[in-house]
Each structure stands twice: as structure tokens, then as C-alpha cells.
Amino acid sequence: MAAVSQNGAPISAQVTNINSTNYVLFDVVPNGGDVVLTKTAPPPALSNPAFDLTPEFNFQLNGLAGLSYVIYSSSNLLDWLPLQTNTLSGASTNLTFPAPDAAQFYRARWLP
């Protein structure tokens, strides 16, 4: 996915695939200023949280295949530590971490 802007204003863009290669098509004003193409991705989602008997904590990371995401953990929602980086081979993957002793929060972020 991509976003296009000219002089800071967004421009409509269309991603098209030709012969297994993605291209971004857009119209800009000639000599109208700088054109910036930015790679974007929809936000990842964490779902299906569960504890098992080992004890481990499991959840599913949902995103776009081929993109990398970092999983972070926090005990207070202020200080976040990276736990691991994952490159999705499909639209989701299941993750397992040791069960925390106290309240623990998790989030995922796209790694451009």
C-alpha cells in the first residue's frame, strides 16, 4: 500500500499489478512541487487471546502477508519493550509467550 502527496496535500493513487509487479499510479501537477510516495500499511490487530495449561499466553497477529510487525509488551501502558519481530507469510500467525505473573499489555506495530 502507498500514499502519495504533493506539497503536503494527499493525492489520489491507485495500486495496480502488472505481470506480478505492483505499480502506484497517480496524477500530479507538473512543476507543482515535491511529490512524496510513502509506503503505508493498515494497522495490525491482535486477536484470540488465551492462556493454556503450560502456562503460556497465546494470541493471533493479523496483518498483511510479507510485512514485518514488532510485538511490544508493557506492564503500565507507558513503557513499551519490543518482544519479537514477525514477518507474516499469510494474513495472520499465532504467537506464544510465557504467561506473565502480573497484568501485561501487548501491541503490534508495522515495521516499514
Principal-axis shape equals elongated
Helix content: under 10%
CATH level 3 topology of the largest domain? Immunoglobulin-like
Under the CATH scheme, the architecture of the largest domain is: Sandwich
Write out the strand line-up for the largest beta sheet, numbering strands in chain order.
2-1-5
End-to-end gap: 11 Å
Q: Which CATH C-level class of the largest domain is it? A: Mainly Beta
Structural class, judged by helices and strands? mainly beta
**Helix count, DSSP H or I runs of 4 or more residues:** 0
What does the largest sheet look like? 3 strands, antiparallel
Report the mean per-residue pLDDT as an integer. Answer: 85
Total number of β-strand segments?
Answer: 11
How much is the radius of gyration in Å? Answer: 19 Å
Q: How big a fraction of the residues is strand?
A: over 45%
Low-confidence stretches: none
Order of helices and strands: EEEEEEEEEEE
Total count of domains: 2
Overview of the structural elements:
The chain has 112 residues and is mainly beta. It has two domains: 2-39, no CATH class; 45-111, Immunoglobulin-like (Sandwich), CATH 2.60.40. It is 0% helix and 60% strand. It contains no helices and eleven strands. A three-stranded antiparallel β-sheet has the order 2-1-5, with no helix packed on it. A three-stranded antiparallel β-sheet has the order 6-7-10, with no helix packed on it. The protein has a three-stranded antiparallel β-sheet with strand order 9-8-11, with no helix packed on it. β6 and β7 form a beta hairpin. It is elongated and about 60 Å long. It starts with a strand and ends with a strand.
